[in-house]
Amino acid sequence: MKLEGCAAVVTGGASGLGEATARALAEQGVKVALFDLNAERGEQVASEIGGIFCQVNVTDEASVDAGFAKARAAHGQERILVNCAGTGNAIKTASRARDTGEIRHFPIDQFDRIIQINLVGTFRCIAKAAAGMLTLDPMEDGERGAIVNTASVAAEDGQAGQAAYSASKGGIVGMTLPIARDLMGDGIRVNTILPGIFNTPLMNGAPQHVKDALAASVPFPKRLGNAPEYASLAVEMCRNSYFNGEDVRLDGAIRMSPR
Questions:
Q1: Which of 68, 111, 165, 198 is the catalytic position?
Q2: What's the confidence (pLDDT) of residue 200?
Q3: Residue 60 sits in a domain of what CATH number?
Q4: Catalytic residue at 242?
């Protein structure tokens, strides 16, 4: 796909993997709309890349609809969607408190929250972007658009306490090929990246010795991933028209331990 002049939506675009992807797409001449909750940071990034910011909660249908409407009014119908919005938690399915011996289980509302943000939120944006892409004239090879999703290596080797997170990311992996097949007749490609341990704002609060230990657990290179490396792969998935229906780990060959 020729990227220059295309319009794109990047969810979670105000920071981390989403910000890096928004910047990388803008460098290719793409008109980028950022979907995020962080208005201050989102407006700043959008201003720096010549894009537009849309304050969007991916769990809210009306908010997502308003975001797409604003983005399309400014840039036209997007041919590219990159889903980076997401979050996580660490709660065991059932556990015993060390101090009191009290037995507790995973709060179901917290499980549902992760599923709603990571999995349902991703699918909501996919469905709405794909419907819009169907209105576009086809490009070379009959291509109308490209969608890139963000899962995690936890989809395949989740650690203790990651039941909700792994379920949400496993769902993204599981729906990639069916959605690509749903859209194949209309020239819309769908791929998913499974990042390993990346140096993003989510990691900023971790002590340095924790970061060092995580970096040492990566076979090669022995460091955390950097957001531009994710962005590079996301851009290639958009550019390369033969990239379709794939789930690709980007992790330095790490396989996560149980804890």
A1: 165
A2: 85
A3: 3.40.50.720
A4: no
